Predict the structure of Addiction module antidote protein, HigA family.
Amino acid sequence: MNMKRKPKAPGEVLETQFMQPNQITQKELASHTGWTRKHVNELCKGKARVTIDTALILGKAFGTGPDYWLELQQAVDIWDALHSEKRKERLESIVPLMKMVAA
């Protein structure tokens, strides 16, 4: 996977593609979902991750299904992992198994 640009965080997508076009405030989303306004704010600001429970609720609320939200979160998680210096070093030290079997 070669992603040069960090994918949009699920919270950014939530805010720009779902809440703003439908004029839904953080307070309204919090009330509708049973979340605190703080949780919605942290989600929108990328400070809270999309968990399975979060994805289930967002999927139901916006008619997308949970996979949509989990895939957005996964893309960010993979990008973060691939751009972590510690993980880069670790990954570079691993030889693909298929090459070892063929050798």
User: Anything to note?
Assistant: Helices lie at 10-19, 26-33, 37-44, 52-62, 66-82, 85-92, 97-102.
